[in-house]
């Protein structure tokens, strides 16, 4: 049988326990917060790496990525016919819709999208949270370098494949 008011006593015990502790308030605008390494802030775009494959826009659960492109013919010397390549005209992310899941970054096969730790991009008007490719490229400079490979771990797949190719070429 439970005593009446047992929940109230537990709640007051928690309150009294925290009453004597020092607060952990950080004075944010004056003191920069210590962010964990590789923290998620805003998505940065490296336009040269984007091949307009549209995987990021297709996989986005919020449909907040907008991509426009056109095809250009590229004449390759010695080729029988000209080739076509996609040229990126518009790449925009609506951060008012984005839920920062990171699926777009994970599915990008050419490493065109990266997490930047930049988190101070609030706007007064919600319509200004639609960031075009020029604004997304500004954050590339703040993207941290990837962590160093563990020397005791397995080599990367790319290194293994390159070693196999160079071994066959030498034989």
Description:
Its main location: membrane. By secondary structure, the protein is an alpha+beta fold. Helices cover about 25% and strands about 20% of the residues. The chain has a 3-stranded antiparallel β-sheet. A two-stranded antiparallel sheet has the order 1-4. A hairpin with an 8-residue loop joins strand 2 and strand 3. The longest helix is centred in the first third of the chain and has 14 residues. The protein is elongated, with a radius of gyration of 25 Å. The mean pLDDT is about 90.
Q: Please give the order of strands in the largest beta sheet.
A: 2-3-5
Distance between the termini: 82 Å
Order of helices and strands: HEHEEHEEHH
Low-confidence sequence ranges:
none
| Overall morphology | elongated
Structural class: alpha+beta
Rg for CA atoms: 25 Å
Mean pLDDT: 89
Number of strands: 5
Fraction in helix: 25-40%
Number of helices: 5
**Percent of residues in beta strands?**
15-25%
Biggest sheet character: 3 strands, antiparallel
């Amino acid at each position: 049988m439970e005593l009446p008011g047992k929940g109230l006593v537990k709640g007051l015990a928690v309150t009294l326990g925290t009453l004597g502790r020092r607060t952990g308030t950080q004075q944010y605008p004056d003191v920069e917060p210590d962010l964990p390494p590789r923290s998620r802030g805003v998505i940065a775009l490296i336009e040269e790496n984007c091949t307009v494959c549209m995987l990021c826009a297709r996989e986005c659960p919020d449909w907040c990525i907008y991509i426009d492109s056109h095809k250009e013919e590229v004449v390759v010397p010695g080729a029988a016919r000209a080739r076509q390549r996609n040229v990126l005209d518009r790449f925009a992310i609506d951060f008012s819709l984005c839920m920062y899941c990171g699926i777009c970054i994970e599915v990008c096969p050419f490493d065109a999208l990266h997490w930047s730790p930049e988190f101070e991009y609030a706007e007064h008007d919600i319509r200004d949270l639609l960031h075009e490719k020029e604004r997304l490229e500004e954050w590339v400079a703040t993207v941290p370098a990837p962590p160093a490979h563990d020397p005791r771990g397995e080599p990367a797949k790319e290194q293994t494949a390159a070693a196999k190719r160079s071994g066959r070429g030498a034989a």
